[in-house]
Structure formats: structure tokens, C-alpha cells
């Protein structure tokens, strides 16, 4: 029978060194710089964009995600299909909200 993991080190010094390294890694992590207050995620929105540009892009992105979820819903069966359809319905509502906000912005 083949084992998935290698045998532990045969000498106790190597084993203890590895154990201490693992313990220090999890209990005493090296200090990492705090994330800046400007961005907490991977993506940022460029400063100076007007509301209409933001709403149009949000609406287009939501429509794309809605199309993906809708396509997925018709490729699968059972409970996962119901979940994908629920996501589609939620996205439809969000698209309506964004489109309504965009229309109100254009009329002002």
C-alpha cells in the first residue's frame, strides 16, 4: 500500500525543529503590514468617475452575471438548478434597482 505522506524524520532534532517551525508559523506569524484604508480588496474603482459611468458598468456587469447564471440553470437539474434560478431572480431584481437608479440620475 502506498502512503500519501512521507515518513517523519528519523532523528528527533529534525522532527523538533520542524515542529517548532510549524508552531511558530501559526502562533507567532511574522508581522504583516496593515492594509491601507483606501482599498480592502483586490479591485478598486478609479477616482473621478461620474455616477452614470458607475451605474452603466454595474448594470452591464450584472446583466453578464445574470446571463451566466441563466445559462447554468438550464444546463443542470434538481436542487442545483433551483439554486441557480434563485440567483437569476436575485440578479434580475438588482438589475432593476440599478437601472432605476440610472434612469433617475438621467432625469435629474
How much helical structure, as a percent, in the residues? 55-70%
- The low-pLDDT segments are none
Instruction: Using the CA coordinates, give the radius of gyration.
Output: 25 Å
What is the mean predicted local confidence, pLDDT? 82
Total helix count?
3
Instruction: Count the E strands.
Output: 0
Biggest β-sheet, characterized? none
The SS-based structural class is mainly alpha
Q: Tell me, briefly, the overall form.
A: elongated
* SSE topology string: HHH
Q: Give the N-to-C terminal Cα separation.
A: 74 Å
Query: What share of the residues does DSSP label as strand, in percent?
Result: under 5%
Secondary structure topology:
Elements: H1 12-27, H2 51-73, H3 79-107
